[in-house]
Amino acid sequence: DTHAMFRLAKQFVGHRSSVSCLCYNHVTNVLLSGSDDGTVREWDMAKGTSVRCLMLGKPIQSVTFVAGRHDLILTSAENTLCEYYLSGPNASKIIIKEPSYCHQINRDEISTIVSNLSGTIVASCDDSGDVLLLSVVGGLPSDSPSPPFCMPLRTLSRADSNVCMAAAFHPSLDTVLISGGLDAILAQWDIGTGTLLHQENMNMISIPQLVNPPYVYSLHISSSGRIACGLGDGSIIILRATSKGLVHTGRIAEAHGRAVTCVEWARFNSEQYLVSAGDDCKISLWDFGKEDHQPKGSRKKDRKKKGKAKREEAADSATFVCGMLHPQKINALTTSQEGIIVADVTSVITHYHVQYN
Fold this sequence. Notes:
Blueprint: E1 4-12, E2 19-25, E3 30-35, E4 39-44, E5 49-55, E6 62-66, E7 69-77, E8 80-85, E9 95-96, E10 101-103, E11 110-115, E12 121-126, E13 131-136, E14 150-156, E15 164-169, E16 176-181, E17 185-190, E18 195-201, E19 216-221, E20 227-231, E21 236-242, E22 245-252, E23 260-265, E24 273-278, E25 282-287, H1 296-306, H2 308-312, E26 319-325, E27 330-335, E28 339-344, E29 349-356
Parallel strand pairs: 5-9
Antiparallel strand pairs: 1-29, 2-3, 3-4, 4-5, 6-7, 7-8, 8-10, 11-12, 12-13, 13-14, 15-16, 16-17, 17-18, 19-20, 20-21, 21-22, 23-24, 24-25, 25-26, 27-28, 28-29
């Protein structure tokens, strides 16, 4: 059995109000944080210091790097999506007083922004239930004025949808995006055509209840395709995206005492661990075991021997590793190579290392 514990490593101090969102770039070892103080801060993880401040003047709801573009940061406030271009004239600036460009194309308040792994598509999800897709275009020479680098592509929308709380691009299925929200529906989309491929009702998987319905509050997809979904009833659902739709492969029934607002496959330990956090202020670490990465030829032979149905129904089971109570209500969580980064209702960001016994 694996024995581990969380150890306080450092705290990041610089914001003046509650920190609402986080984004960690494992390539550059840089952390982004957005706050109700109307700023986004860029942090040097090694030193624990703020190296740049992006000003917007309104409470920040979401922030992200565009994958592969370390010079392009996207953030949102209300229904506005803002681009900050960090090359050219902005390259040496410690304080950037205004965005390079702002989009007002979402119908309602933006809840989250995500980029696909190739950095070519961005999804902007809002409280109307819409998911707006934007195409990321190439940059200009550093001495040229900055145009919008994200161009509206199409809108993913369902009838009777509710607030979209979370979305993630599938790492190996290039045209697939998964989204979920406060209608308890997990949707699988073809972003190339804007088609709804499949939808899974969490009420059919979890035990229906009125007090804490299984709304989708968080989701994250591992590099191997495991989809972790944090629900309002305190449970975590594991699914896989297949040609036939979303397949339910696992469930942690009472992962948290309240809504699971954060889930992420940990960057440490080869995504074997899932980190979760909830409105109960608890942070938990779950061990799902190592994935089977056999060559494709071997997998085909296994299917012939064992039967296709049996392989598709293989379960994703978890073992609880360790947990802790964070002193404040958690707003956002992400992972680094060393551990877990937590933002809460205070202005301080906390970095916990995972220490193995």
